[in-house]
């Protein structure tokens, strides 16, 4: 009986192992916002903020409908130079830059002028301090620039129904390598929103609009669903049983135990 039981579990182990191997390559991904089509499509506008002005802050909101799948850990982001304006490749360098992220119940249509009101309770400062990254020019669209690596990854679950909010602060008054980033506006990016003020310490936005998106590429890690974690538990259990069977087999050979 033990032999038959272990044979069944061994088969299950092989199936589970195949599933895990098949999905292992998908634990890391790049997500282009506002949607994947902009990986190869130039936006119809450009954004002076957050990388083209000295003193400024801006919020960019992306609703949950722009994402697919389960929870992700956002490790960093890339932006690219607007191809229409151009200006050549360069290196953006700021001594005092900050990025906050949060999940929020706000939508592009309900974004408020008061910056703090747009954040959710899980507001997290993911980068605070010096920032330097290089970007290219000459393409249409241009390639995304160097990865802006977050000091603290941010976990976002689009299944929660909440939007994802990025809040950029540029405090440095002597930034080098300023550039206009690629941007899309209009009904094609309806589930987005944008708020801005040319003062990083202001509490309210001087400009607010829906249907406005900074084109960016997120570097993310896929957080396994509970089912995947259960598979790992099954594999662990089967492994223990298999090792137990091998031990009993050795005892049987010595005449000390019958595994049938």
Q: SSE layout and pairings?
A:
Blueprint: H1 2-24, E1 28-33, E2 45-47, E3 56-62, E4 72-79, E5 90-104, E6 124-135, E7 148-156, E8 163-170, E9 181-185, E10 192-197, E11 207-210, E12 212-214, E13 216-222, H2 226-253
Antiparallel strand pairs: 1-13, 2-9, 3-8, 3-10, 4-7, 4-13, 5-6, 5-8, 9-12, 10-11
Helix pairs in contact: 1-2
General description of the model:
- With 260 residues, the chain is of the alpha+beta class.
- It has 2 domains: 25-222, Sandwich (Jelly Rolls); 225-260.
- It has 2 helices and 13 strands.
- It has helices at residues 2-24, 226-253, and strands spanning 28-33, 45-47, 56-62, 72-79, 90-104, 124-135, 148-156, 163-170, 181-185, 192-197, 207-210, 212-214, 216-222.
- The strands form 3 sheets. Strands 6-5-8-3-10-11 form a 6-stranded antiparallel β-sheet, with no helix packed on it. It has a 4-stranded antiparallel β-sheet with strand order 1-13-4-7, with no helix packed on it. Strands 2-9-12 form a 3-stranded antiparallel β-sheet, with no helix packed on it.
- Helix 1 runs antiparallel to helix 2.
- The radius of gyration is 25 Å and the shape is globular.
- The termini are close together.
- The model is unreliable at 12-26 and 228-236 (pLDDT under 50).
Distinctive features:
260 residues; alpha+beta; Jelly Rolls; 2 domains; six-stranded antiparallel β-sheet; 2 helices; 20% helix; globular
Question: What's this entry about, in short?
Answer:
With 260 residues, this protein is an alpha+beta fold.
